[in-house]
Amino acid sequence: MDEGLIPSPLIRDDEIFLRMNLAERIQHILLIATFTTLIITGLPLVLYEMKIFKALFAFEKAFYIRGILHRLAAVIMIVNILWHIAYSLFTRRGRNNFKELMPKFKDAKDAFQVFWHNIGLTGFLYKKGIFKACFDKHPYWLFKEEPEFGRYNFIEKFEYLGVAWGSLVMIISGFFMWNVELSLKFFPLWVHDIFIIIHGYEAILAFLTIIIWHMYNVHLNPEVFPMSKVWLNGKITSHELRTLHPLEYKKIAEERVRASAKAAEVK
Amino acid sequence: MKKYLAVIARLLAVAAMISAAALAAAAAPGQTRVDNKNGACLACHKLSVLEGSVHGKLACSECHLIPAGGETKDVPHALKKDIPLVDCTAKCHREDTRKLPGLSPSFYADSVHGQGYLERGEKDVAKCWDCHGKHNIKPVQDPDSVVSRQNIPLICSRCHENMTVVLKYNIHAESPYKEYIQSVHGKALLSKGPATFAAVCTDCHGVHNIQGIGQAHMQAKDPTTCGKCHVPIFNEYKDSIHGQQALKGNVDVPLCVDCHGEHKVASVRDAAAPTAKKNIPDTCSGCHARPEIMKKYGVPVDRIQTFIESFHGIAIGLGDKAEASCTDCHGVHNIKPAIDPQSMVHSTNIPKTCGQPNCHPGMPEKIAKAKIHRDSLIKQSGTPYYINKILLWALIVVVAITVAWFLFELVSRRRRTKTP
Asked: Do the chains contact at A118 and B409, CB–CB below 8 Å?
């Protein structure tokens, strides 16, 4: 494996770091459970013409139970989100995570770089001797190296913000769909229609995003295949940290350098 | 208990008949009884069934018009083919009971059966004795009579379940009996005890005056026929837009049988019924999704499609029973056009219709002004249409980029992890 970073002498290679603490893991598991329930009980209403969903609702009262489950899952998800907000506001670790998750200009640059790196077009051109002089002058455009990521890479940030934005849209539109009478008291019917349309599209978008982005990153990605176990034990080895999140690794190494220097000073 | 009593009574009757016959035989061995005018015939034709028949006292020759002097000849007195067929209306059964339309045998000649037999000489159409029996004719009120109410469906089925007959005369109902016994009427008549008022074949189709399907205003399709029993519903229906037109003779509008089915009329609680909640949009679409009919009356043809795509429609399509279907808003038998102030969907009544206790209590009044059957996929719907379009394309673009991205990502990353 391309290791990129030189191991720090202050970090043992078999040392284990905490990537997700218990509260974060519970929040994540609750999110999985409610999200899955919401998708299963909600998607049939968007793709109502598919035979598989008609089969799903074959038994008596199935549709009624669907409605109850959907709303129950929504309420649990909202409580979970409120817990997460409180956690991100009132705990040091939560605040720190939130800061780390905020998108920066570097993330756009990283995305651009990873994209061209994966396509490998410039590398191919260079190998064939096209624009050789130009690439020799500006080796950045060869995208030979992958960018170095911090605690959260741009994909993880994108997913987090996607969940945040999606939840906001779904909670607002879903609330008014749950309370049609209230919705129609405030808005004309066509606005209510827009709530329904948005709720449907956002559901498909969230479903596909999770299926493609997240499932790829935590399952199909050859670096973690068949599954990253972080969501279960919260642990990440220093080796994984060094390859997947080198900037975070560097930060820890620097902190240790500083700490040992301080310790030496005290002595 | 009643069943056993009837069986015992029947056994006693049979025993009595046998002993009577034995006594008669014992009384005059080797010679015919002088007091019986049919004695000469019965000596050869052992027809004990005549004993219980209403015609038991008639002379054979009153029905069997044996050529003059025929009965005195030596046996065989005449070959069967030489004896003319019985005509029940030749001397008797000529009553013209206007009070009981169809009951008089004089209607037979103009019925679909009578025309076939009398005019075209068809051998396999129903003749008097095919339904009433030959010698064992019993009063209609007698439960043993082949034409008692309980037995009528069975007696009709002898021909109407026969595919040879069905195909020969191109009868549109292929197995009316099998359908009937599963219908509310059939179940009531046959399995739920003595519900003798449940409609049998003749109640709808007529008795001696049965008409074929080609006839205009065929009795069995006429809403007034159903209305004979279903009085309150008929009164609702006749004031509805469908009923008003139907009674004027308009054949475009749904008659009772068009929504409820013909022989297999089922309860709305039966999941397979065309009037079951789940099937109602389908049933209405039989007319309301057909442009050639809807154009004629200025009714938009997209009503069913917009309903299916609405939240109510999706829920109904997925088998929900609590959600509103066509009839929950428009009414059932009392459907009226939206311009009629009595209509459930007239703008003044819409808040009340939506606000039914099980639906949307507290629905704001302004729903009256909203367009209910709307389609966000057509331009006329305005903002929802554009939102729909934008989101659809946004979704397609995002998914396309994502898929392309991860294909490259996967290929490139695999290459790197395999060969370091």
From this structure: yes
